[in-house]
Amino acid sequence: MYSPELVVILAISSSIAAVMGSYNICPAQPAVSCSCPSQWQMWHYVCYRITPSPHSWDDAKTKCQDLGGKMAAPRSLEEMKFMVDLARKLDSNYHVWIACTDKEAEGTWECDGQEGREPFLEWSAKQPDDFQDNQDCAYIFGYFNDKMDDGSCSVNHKAVCAHQAACPHHSTQPRRYCLSTDTHGRILNSTCLLDHSIREFITEGVVACGSACAKEPGCRSFNIKKSEKGKKICQLKNSTSSEDKDKFQNTDYFCMYSEVCIG
Question: Domain Apple: where (predicted)?
Fold first, then answer.
């Protein structure tokens, strides 16, 4: 565990600037108080619920929209576990649709909100199998150890819906970045927030990584580290160093941590 300070930095060295790119730095802000409507449950600043009745996959997508959200697709094991817990409270032998399909091209699975990258898919053993050449939609199944299975899109199941939590000023305030520093005000370049990953990708610097975090539902912070080939890797996180201090740790490689600030 590492206890950083978040301060205003007016200048950074050229070596750090080369890694991070040009951007503004802001002091840390108090945690934002967010909320969800009745019957929705919040996880990492996103609201979730299960549809009250079963539908075909396409009708379930429409139903989620009617409820004020959209059909959800998990982006990590942590998020999938939250969905599982939500569904299991209603039925221990649940089936719930998620927003993943290979309708466009058999065997090429696409998940809503994960376009342009490898989607998160946690299949049950020997799945997907496209049984009888008629299984193009994904669901999470309690009987299959809370893993994913492919099914006929016309079968009626309940579905997981999601929408962004209501956070004061969240949509109108500009996004800026808070850097972690030591007690002498020096920027930490070998500390990372471990786990809590939504996704990671090669990036040009903090501006691109921060923009991706701002657009990613549930993103609260991000790391930028260097790969063995010197590439900058952006890791989007659904938690912060203050929310999980035990996972904010020193590393033996270059890694810089930033939080998204409001204001």
Answer: 178-261
